[in-house]
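User: Can you help me understand a structure? I only have the sequence.
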Amino acid sequence: MDPDLFRSVLGRFATGVVVVTARDAAGRDHGMTVSAFSSVSLDPPLVLICVGHDATIYDPLMSATSLGVSILASHQEACSRRFADHEEESFEGIGYARGEAGVLLLDEATAHLECRVVDRHEAGDHTILVALVERAAAFEGRPLLYYRGGYARLER
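Assistant: Let's start by predicting it. Here is the structure, written out as C-alpha cells:
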C-alpha cells in the first residue's frame, strides 16, 4: 500500500479531536492531541487511544495507570495545535481542573473522561491503549473536527 494514498484515503474520515493527559512517576503533567480515539464498549465502558511510538508522551503513557481525556470544542483549535506540537507540553495559560485520579481535564471542552488503563496492544508503529472510563461529564458546545489534514467545524 502506498503510504501517501493510505494517508489520503484515511484523511477523508472526519474525527473528533481530544487532548489526552497523564502524570509521570515524578508527578509531571503531560498532554497530547489525539485524533485516533474511539469508544470500544458500553458494558464495560471502554475507550481506545492510539499513540505513536515516536510521541513525546509515549513513555509517560506507557507507565500511566490513569488518563484524562478532554474532547475539544470547536473554539479550541489553538489548544489542539499546542498539544500536537511535539516540543510543547506546557499547560501554562490553559484553564484546567484535576480529576479524582489527579489527571488534568481542560476547561471549555465538550466532554471529559477519567480513565484507568486496562490493556495495551502493539500495532505497527503505534500502541493501542484500552482504558476503562471511571468518570465522565458532558457539556454544551460543538466539537472540533479533523478532516483531510486540517481542522473543521460541525455546521448545524
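Now, to help you interpret it: Residues 82 and 88 are 6 Å apart (CA to CA). The two ends are 36 Å apart (CA to CA). Let me know which part you'd like to focus on.
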